[in-house]
Predict the 3D structure of the following.
Amino acid sequence: MEEEDFQEVILETVKKVFNFQCSAKVELKDSETYKEGEEWGGQGQTDVTSMTYLSAEDVNCSVGICFSKPSYLKYISAMFGEEVTEFDDQTTDASGEFLNMIMGNIKAKYYESNKKDIESTFPMSFFGRPSIFKIDSDIKLKVYPMESHLGPVFAIISFGKEPIMPWSQDFF
């Protein structure tokens, strides 16, 4: 599967999952590409970040979703059907579950198109201080802003043989 086709599968799946789980019709905005020496994150956009890595013989890709805290709490409230105002074990687990649902759909579409499986890592989620994506190699990070009545959410996609992960001051 070509990178552009796979990228479209990812973006359509993200929109589908948020529509189904949160009744949120997310609309894709103009993407931004970050290259070596550049960084993205902070500015209240990445208070909640979940990442995974997909791997097959013809595609290798890091995939993530990022939210501000207020936006994330609105998506979780819509998913749970009740107002959520703070992080707790249940609400923090939901970030990884969003990504698990996205990955399940991507894997099914990939198998349908290629008759082969695609592997994924267990989602890693980061909460609290904003996560920063700093590009240190020749890979490119593509950030896809999406908007719904619940607020912004960002899809992160980076093709390459090495997974990308954000960093945060919480890691030190």
Observations:
- The chain has a mean pLDDT of 89.
- The helical segments are 3-22, 69-80, 89-114.
- The longest strand covers residues 151-159.
- The chain has three helices and ten strands.
